[in-house]
Amino acid sequence: MTSKSPSASPEFSVREFFARFPNEDACLEHIMQVRFGGTRFECASCGKESTHHKLATRRTYVCANCGHHVNPTANTVLHDTRTPLVSWFYAMYLFCTTRHGVSGKELQRQLGVTYKTAYRIGQHIRDLMSKAQGFDALLAGHIELDEAYVGGRRSGKRGRGAAGKTIVMGLAERDGRMKAVVIPNVKKDTLRDVVLANVERGATVSTDELYSYGLLEGDGYKHGRVKHGAKEYAFYDYRAGETFHVNTVEGFWKLFKASVRSTHIQISGKHMQRYLDEFTFRASNRGRVNGMFDLLVGAL
Fold this sequence. Notes:
Order of helices and strands: HHEEEEHHHEEEHEEEEHHH
Structural class: alpha+beta
Low-confidence stretches: none
Radius of gyration: 23 Å
Number of strands: 11
Distance between the termini: 35 Å
Strand content: 15-25%
Mean pLDDT: 88
Number of helices: 9
Largest sheet: 5 strands, mixed
Shape: elongated
């Protein structure tokens, strides 16, 4: 199968977005399709399969058999919102198609809303991304682990042990999904808990030479270390038949830190997990922008 040309049209362009969602009714219809499978389904009130028709002036569908009302945005972040649904959908589209994230000021400019509204929409979308990933199974196969320190430049020690920074740990499935979590420290027990909670036992794991990762083989993982201190960045273990490196997860941290510097300028430790979930959601679903968008709508 031939790969797609870099100069080819994007999978889900802005033109295609507005063709699919030109108005409020199109957005509501899509929510009905994702949440209920369409406008014909078994009514929760009369128990009969019937067609549900939209009311002209409300975000409500009505059962043709008994008149029961169904609000597709009920119990979601869109319930009673005064911001047009097209604006919400376009904000979700921007989050799915960007590589470096979307700031509150950028949403304010693109949507024509106040900064307070734009910031709230952005945080809600990050929560949806976190929710959409909450159903994922444990990472399996070959997993790369690496921790990083996020918090900008400052005087003093750099790298491990730097003061005033948020410690984050990334877990990357080779050619697959990505997870990242905020951690309080890089002690053995802390890293062990993260690995056990997110990685299937028996998986192959690549790390750097940090001593705290020495626990992994005792928990049933096949473990290989790359010695960055000795300028070693990858090696092939003929006994395991695996190439060990952490280049994938290090590439993720490079993108994340560059995005914080350029797009967001600064992220507080309080909200760091939301932004990690945003970036890992895109990394895990990078091959399908359309599917990424529908996952967000499904998480409403």
